Amino acid sequence: PEYDLAIRGGTVVTATDTIRADIGVRDGRIAAVADRLADAARTIDASGLLVLPGGIDSHVHIAQPSGPGIVMADDFASATRAAAAGGNTCVMPFALQPRGQSLRETALAYRALAEGQCHIDVAIHLIVSDPTPAVLGQELPAMIGAGFTSFKVFMTYDDLVLNDRQILDVFDVARREGARVMVHAEGYDAIRYMTERMERSGQTGPYGHALSRPQTVEREAAHRAISHAELVDLPIVIVHVSGGEAMEQIAWAQERGMKIHAETCPQYLTLTAEDMKGLGQDDPLAGSKYVCSPPVRDTASQEQIWSGIQRGVFDVVSSDHCPFRYDETGKRNPKGRTSFRWIPNGIPGIETRLPILFSEGVSKGRISLNRFVALSATNHAKLYGLYPRKGSIGPGFDADLTLWDPNRREVIRQEILHHGADYTPWEGFAVTGWPVMTIAGGSVIVEDGRILEEPGRGRVLDREIDRTKLSPRL
Ligand code: URP
Ligand code: ZN
Ligand code: ZN
Ligand code: ZN
């Protein structure tokens, strides 16, 4: 037969087109997209289904050091298993440089941890927490050259925060080397001030977390990051934007022609700070299931973020999957009972990102199918150096595909998920639209929630700098 695999009769969707076509796969890549295809060794009937580029989640945390005694709930095997079950074929976690440690050692050790453990391909970002002269002068340029072409910097957290001069210095390295920088924009000093104020006033429960990081804190940091990017003349991505205030700063910069990209996440479209109050639950830490940073806001913010998605302020929707076990960080967390500041920040969402975005976006008529594909796959590949290998459907692309049933109704429940966390913040959330098959490198790896392989197929992808793509048109 001419093809290893043929997917027939489906509706093929890319960021720009929606067409009835068959797809022929050979040697793990898409060989043809055509009206009718020659023989294939295996045929999958996709009639009634959408054929989408596999989801790319460019912001996930896997097996990341998270403070004394706290272990992240997912390793590479469980995180990529859950990602695949949720219709994804590539995820991008972070190798975090602990202060005082070599960026190079960190990056290579993290990569070794991933090798052989993944169900789907991964590409690794760095987190730069200690920009010493050696890191700025040698290690960071060397690692960018070795395929870690993107990195994240933080404007808050005791162990990660960079001051303004350090941010300018790492931006400068990124500009020289052609790397992509992601910025966590929340202001460190303002959060410390507000945290102490909340603690003094007795607001120590999980809801105090939201009060300690109001939108002002995010807006100020976003504006500061934008200003630094303007000085250095560096395109940046402001990640996990939570509400209208930071978004307005980004839109303002974009209107002035600055290359500021933005990411948001399903939690900012569906959850609110009220959830952190844990109303009706007996455990006072029940609200910790919703603690993430920036915090989830309110329904008005959700609508503002949707309008930003519709207006093109946002390029990508990622999960910011950052999984902990409620049993450890909630129920059995005596320190967490003294103050929200001891509740680790982050929520699981690697498996539910696509169904929530599809259901709330496409099924409810807020965004088109093509925009869904751009936000969930294509733009991630374009921003982070994976395009044109991944992120779309056409000859030469990796055969990373998700068959999607746009009409299937599901209720999100912990018991149907594959992640390592022991809860989902979306328990009981009803969606319309669900991934029914995930194909990675031309092989069916998940069918109807069943994982068909042991981990090991997924590769760690090295990326190359292509300066012509630093400012992609999205
Ligand atoms: O609360 C969050 N988002 N934790 C993950 C780390 C980060 O800042 O993205
Ligand atoms: Zn962050
Ligand atoms: Zn953009
Ligand atoms: Zn994150």
UniProtKB/TrEMBL annotation:
<dbReference type="GO" id="GO:0016812">
    <property type="term" value="F:hydrolase activity, acting on carbon-nitrogen (but not peptide) bonds, in cyclic amides"/>
</dbReference>
<feature type="domain" description="Amidohydrolase-related">
    <location>
        <begin position="50"/>
        <end position="444"/>
    </location>
</feature>
<dbReference type="GO" id="GO:0005829">
    <property type="term" value="C:cytosol"/>
</dbReference>
<dbReference type="InterPro" id="IPR011778">
    <property type="entry name" value="Hydantoinase/dihydroPyrase"/>
</dbReference>
<dbReference type="InterPro" id="IPR006680">
    <property type="entry name" value="Amidohydro-rel"/>
</dbReference>
<keyword id="KW-0378">Hydrolase</keyword>
<dbReference type="InterPro" id="IPR050378">
    <property type="entry name" value="Metallo-dep_Hydrolases_sf"/>
</dbReference>
<keyword id="KW-0479">Metal-binding</keyword>
<feature type="modified residue" description="N6-carboxylysine">
    <location>
        <position position="152"/>
    </location>
</feature>
<dbReference type="Pfam" id="PF01979">
    <property type="entry name" value="Amidohydro_1"/>
</dbReference>
<comment type="similarity">
    <text>Belongs to the metallo-dependent hydrolases superfamily. Hydantoinase/dihydropyrimidinase family.</text>
</comment>
<protein>
    <submittedName>
        <fullName>Dihydropyrimidinase</fullName>
    </submittedName>
</protein>
<dbReference type="InterPro" id="IPR032466">
    <property type="entry name" value="Metal_Hydrolase"/>
</dbReference>
<dbReference type="GO" id="GO:0046872">
    <property type="term" value="F:metal ion binding"/>
</dbReference>
<dbReference type="InterPro" id="IPR011059">
    <property type="entry name" value="Metal-dep_hydrolase_composite"/>
</dbReference>
